[in-house]
Write a structure and sequence with these properties.
Helix content is 30%, strand content 29%. By secondary structure, the chain is an alpha/beta fold. The protein has one domain: Rossmann fold, CATH 3.40.50.150. Helix 5 links the parallel strand 4 and strand 5. Helix 5 runs parallel beside helix 7. The radius of gyration is 18 Å and the shape is globular. The structure holds S-adenosylmethionine.
């Protein structure tokens, strides 16, 4: 199983840290508000954040009353930043690939993940491993790039534009061809995995989950007008998809 660790590449890490640190960015303006609106009450909860990155969410969970937060990530650089900037007594950051979470000998009330599962080669296998370390009434809440976005294979422009560069519509090709996408984005050969919406949903069901809520990223007209370069395209397609799941009573029905 391939385990890309692109966030330890200097250029990629710097680009991510800089864009994530800007006051107006995709994570804080679009992703986090939707994900947080789907969370249960965190007070007293034992939480695992998969692909915790620089630790922003782990720190917020701690401040929202979580009993403990374990943040795991494959990138040393991301974890070093998290430990330096987003530490708390009840947060532990650990270097671990999400593919190995079944080695965690613990069970959680809540498992979250923001924009990480695009990197999982075996999404259904990952869902099964997550399911195995959740308490009976636990929840899984996660976001990932929307399949409309991951369908891109780098061979065509993401948007058709007017002569002045205004985005007319988003281009979509090879949506039904699933698998690895290797594109040049910040670094050459950036890798993520494209899956259709039905593949995601059926993998969750087969892993033993009930989908309680699904959201697609939306952004207000005001924000789009105010920041056209950053958010102008969000009228054409949702950047992210979100799911909240509980455990179903019977597996593999
Ligand atoms: C887009 S960043 C998101 C970080 C954080 N969740 C946030 O919302 O700011 C993706 C993160 O996933 C991590 N990641 C990628 N592949 C991974 C893997 N196989 N196992 C664990 N973490 C991984 C990266 O190192 C990076 O920190």
């Amino acid at each position: 199983m391939s385990k890309q660790n692109v966030y330890d590449n200097d250029a990629f890490f710097d680009q991510f840290r800089n864009s994530r640190s800007r006051e107006v960015n995709f994570n804080d303006c679009i992703e986090t508000p939707i994900l947080f609106s789907m969370l249960p009450d965190l007070r007293g909860k034992k939480i695992l954040d998969i692909g915790c990155g620089m630790g922003q969410h782990a720190k917020q969970y701690s401040e929202m009353g979580a009993d403990s937060v374990l943040g795991i990530d494959i990138s040393e650089k991301m974890l070093a930043y998290a430990k330096e900037h987003h530490s708390a007594e009840n947060i532990v950051y650990r270097r671990m690939a999400m593919e190995n979470i079944d080695t965690i000998r613990d069970a959680f009330d809540l498992i979250t993940s923001s924009l990480v599962f695009d990197y999982a080669e075996d999404f259904e296998g990952l869902m099964k491993k997550i399911h195995s370390i959740m308490k009976t009434d636990a929840k899984l809440v996660f976001s990932m790039s929307h399949p409309i976005v991951t369908a891109w294979d780098g061979a065509y422009d993401r948007y058709t534009r007017t002569e002045t560069g205004e985005r007319l519509y988003a281009n979509l090709r090879n949506y039904c061809r699933e698998g690895l996408r290797k594109v040049n984005w910040v670094v050459n050969g950036y890798e993520c995995y494209h899956r259709t919406v039905s593949t995601l949903i059926n993998a969750m069901i087969r892993a033993g989950f009930v989908i309680e809520q699904c959201e697609e990223a939306r952004i207000s007209d005001d924000m789009r007008k105010q920041y056209p370069a950053l958010f102008g395209g969000t009228i054409h397609r949702p950047e992210f998809i979100f799911f909240r799941c509980g455990k179903s009573d019977c597996l593999n029905h």
